[in-house]
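quick one, 545 residues, struct below
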Amino acid sequence: RADEPVAVIGIGCRFPGAPDPDSYWRLLRDGRDAVGEAPADRHGDSGGRPGGFLEHVYDFDARFFGISARETERMDPQQRLLLEVAWQTFEDAGIAPSSLAGTDTGVFVGISGHDYADLQMPHPDVVDMYSATGNAQSVAAGRLSYFFDLTGPSLALDTACSSSLTAVHTALRSLRDGECSVALAGGVNLMLTPGLSQALDRGGMLGPGGRCRTFDDGADGYVRGEGAGLVCLKPLSAALADGDRVHAVLTGSALGHGGRANGLTAPRGTAQRAVMTGALERAGVEPGQIDYVEAHGTGTALGDPVEWEALAGVYGRGRPADAPCPVGSVKTGIGHLEAAAGIAGLIKAVLVVRQREVPPLLHLTTPNRHLDWTGSGLTVPTTRRALPAEGTLRAGVSSFGFGGTNAHVIVESAPEPPAPAAGSGAPDGTVHALSLSAHTETALATLAGRYRTHLAAHPGVPLAALCHSANAGRSQLSHRAVLTAATRDELDSALEALIRREPAVDVARGGPADGTAPTVAFLFGGQGTQYPGMGRDLYDAHPVF
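---
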C-alpha cells in the first residue's frame, strides 16, 4: 500500500462567495472576484482593509450537533465551521455520517489562527472550561473525531500557510500505512480580530491595493481570506470496490523545509523544487505529463519570481514552445486563506481535472518584468482554457508556509467507472422514491430546494442514482419526507410541493414521534398477491429484495 493512489470521494467547502463545491467551481470558471469589505458582524475595526470574507460565521445550529448554548458561546467559530463542512463532505461522499461511528476514520486538520481565543482570554469573568476546549487547536480535529465517533488518528497541524496541504499529505501517509481506512483532511481559517492583519501589514506582507496580483508587475503583497475545506479520502482500490464516486485521485505528495534561507520567512527556490520533484517521483510521473499547476502564488514582489523560477525549473523544462504548462492561483479571486489556502488550491485542482478546464487568473494586466515569460515553458491563462477531452489529466498543487514548510501534491483525473451490467438499471417507467430528512421542517424545505437546484444543474444524473445516494448516503434525521416520481419533471413538482408545504399525493411527510419506534426495514401490506408479477420490478432492480 506504500504507493497506492488515494481517491477523493467527497468534497466540502465554505469559501468566499462559494458555500459549496458547485458554487466554488462556478465562481472560478466565471472569473469572479469574491474579495470585498469586512462584514458588519466582525469584531473591531478592520481598518477598511478588503478581504475574502465569509458571511454569517457566528451562525451555528448548536442543537443539530448536540452542543449547549453555553459551550457554543465559548467555542471558536473555526471549530463550528469544521463540523458543518465535515458533514457536507461526508454527504458529498455518499456516506451517512452515522455509519462511520466506531470506524478507524482519521481526521487531519490544518489550523493556525486563534483570534477567538484572543477575544476571550483578556476577560476572566467569561472564561471557563469551555473556553479551553473551545479554543484549543488540537480540539479542532478532536471534536470532529468525537462528534462522528471516529477512532483513527486525529491531528491538528500548524505549518502556517501550508497547514491544510500538510494535513492532506499526512492523511495520505496514514492511509498508505494502514492507520486508517478513510480520512478527512483539510483546513480552516477565520479573521475575527484586526490584530494579525495589522502585524502582517506592518511587516510589508499585505498589498496596499487589497488584491493578490499574482505574477503581475504590480504585485505588492497579498490580501487575506478565510474559509474551510475538507476532502474525504479512501485508497483507490477500496473506493472502486465500494462503488464510490471518485472526483479525482491523489498519486503523490511531498513535504520539506527551506532550511537556512535569506530569512526566516524568505522563500527558497531549491526547496520548492525539491518538494515538486519529490511528489512527482512518488506519483511515478514525469513533469511533462502535468497539465496544470496550482501555484502558491501570493502576489508578493519577492515570492512570485522565486516560485516562477522553481516552477520553470521543474514543470517548464523541455516543454515545446507551443505547449507551455498552464499555471494559476486561486488567491487572485478569494484571497490568501492562509491555513486553509492549500485545501482551496487542492479542491480547485480536483475540479480542474474533473471538469477538464482551467479557470482564468485574475488581476494580471502587466506581466511581471522579473519573470522569464518566453523561455520558462509556463503560461498563465487569463481566460478559460479547455483541457483535452479524453485521456488522463494531471495537476500539481503547491502550498508554502511562511515558517518554511513547503508541500506539493499530484492530482490525477478519476479512472473511468466500470460500465453497469446489462439490465442492471431500473426499467423505463419505474417509480423512484427519494427520502429526505433534516433536523427541522425549515431545514427540510431548504434541503428540498437544494435538490431542485441540483436537478436543474445536472440534467444527466439518472433518477435511480440520485435517489440511491439520498436514501443510502445520508443520515436519517427527525423531520422526514419521501417523494415518489417516475420522471425528473414529476420529482421537481414533488420537491416544489414539499418546499411550499402543500399537500401532494406523491409526497409523504413525517416528524418526530413520542417514544422510540423501531426502524422499518420492509413494510408488507398483508393482502397477499394482488396481480401477477406484482413484485417483479422490485426483484429485478433491488438485489436485497
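The chain has two domains: 6-413, 432-541.
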